[in-house]
Amino acid sequence: MVWKSWGAAPSLLLLRIALLLLGAAAPLCSGAGDVALSFAATPRRVSRSTSAAFALRVLRATGGPCADCVVTCQLDGEAASLCGGTAAASYAGLRDGNHSFTACASTTSASNSSSSPSPTPTCATYAWDVDTVPPTASVSAGPAFTSASSTVSALVSFSEPCPGRGGFVCNATYCNLIVYGSGSVDPSTLQVLSPGLRYSVAVAISPDAEYGRLVLVMGRGFCTDAAGHPFTRTPNSTFTLRFDRRSDSMNITATVAEKMVQIQGVTRLVQASNEEEGLRIYLAFAQPVLNSSEQILRALTATDAVAVHLTPTNRSTLGNRRFGYVVTPLSLSMFFESLTDRDCYDSLFCFSDIYNY
């Protein structure tokens, strides 16, 4: 529809729709001199069809037919041409958006029926919109993974106003935003961010579920746009949210021997090696995590004492519980420690805390 490309404020779009509907109450009519021209048939003000057909009434001022009138038709400001017959015109292959059609009628000179039309023609103009795209809406609720304790905020964004059949509804009886899983919409939190286009509402996560998945999806065909298209779901009309509120613990191990080493006067158990080939480290979680090897890798840090690069081993994670990494290159002896904070002392390699998921 035309408002899809106007980029105007929703209030202006609704005003445009209202004006179009008001204008549809009666066909446009214009008269000049002894000729009157009006529309007998037109397309809808907002049409789903890429074709348009017009029928015209051309009358003398006295009310009788104008047998010697010449009628020209013009579409979207293009060059005018004679209408089909004298009172009809049709077009096909129209693009989505706004269009205008102008018809002009004038009489020929009585002394010469083949002479040019009179210099003051009678004209009438009709404007309408073509809309072949059904309305849809996207749903989002922030990151796809969360440890939120109670609620998340969902955002519903429509591609265009969809007021037919009552429009978007979310109340204590029913909500067009459906939640599958251990959660539900809280309709009392509904906010209209942009009338007819954007809404926000809270989704409550069940306190009885420590972890799981929520699927937020728009209902089917619950509203229609000005052209009569029913609401249509697209891939963006569904949002999957995974939540995990469990505490987790993690151990770091390596494929090197453990040794007791004194660091700043404190004896500590470390793993040390001067081998440069095949060195691997493993992170083992007590509970399965939802993160990938690459995401966990971004939570690891190394000291500046030696240049290292960690590469996921791409081996079995034992149900997302165990992740392995190859350490390269090795030019110095390296020490590994499992620390509870970011204080690495004199070790050449250390790990920051892994956030709970």
**Secondary-structure element sequence?**
HHEEEEEEEEEEEEEEEEEEEEEHEEE
Mean pLDDT: 79
Q: Level of helix content? A: under 10%
- The strand count comes to 24
Q: What is the radius of gyration?
A: 36 Å
| Model regions low in confidence, pLDDT < 50 over at least 5 residues | 1-32, 110-115, 330-357
Number of helical elements: 3
- Shape descriptor: elongated
Largest sheet geometry: 5 strands, mixed
Beta-strand percent range: 35-45%
What is the distance, rounded to the nearest whole angstrom, between the alpha carbons of the first and last residues?
44 Å
User: Strands of the biggest beta sheet: in what spatial order?
Assistant: 3-9-8-5-6
CATH topology category name of the largest domain: Immunoglobulin-like
Q: Which second-level CATH architecture of the largest domain applies?
A: Sandwich
Tell me about this structure.
The chain is mainly β. It folds into three domains: 3-130, Immunoglobulin-like (Sandwich), CATH 2.60.40; 137-244, Sandwich (Immunoglobulin-like); 250-336, no CATH class. It contains three helices and 24 strands. It has helices at 3-6, 10-23, 293-297, and strands spanning 29-32, 35-41, 46-47, 52-60, 69-75, 81-82, 88-91, 97-107, 122-130, 137-140, 145-146, 151-158, 177-181, 183-194, 198-205, 211-218, 238-244, 250-254, 258-263, 266-273, 280-285, 309-312, 322-328, 334-336. A five-stranded mixed sheet has the order 3-9-8-5-6. It starts with a helix and ends in a 21-residue tail after the last strand. Residues 1-32, 110-115 and 330-357 have low confidence and may be disordered.
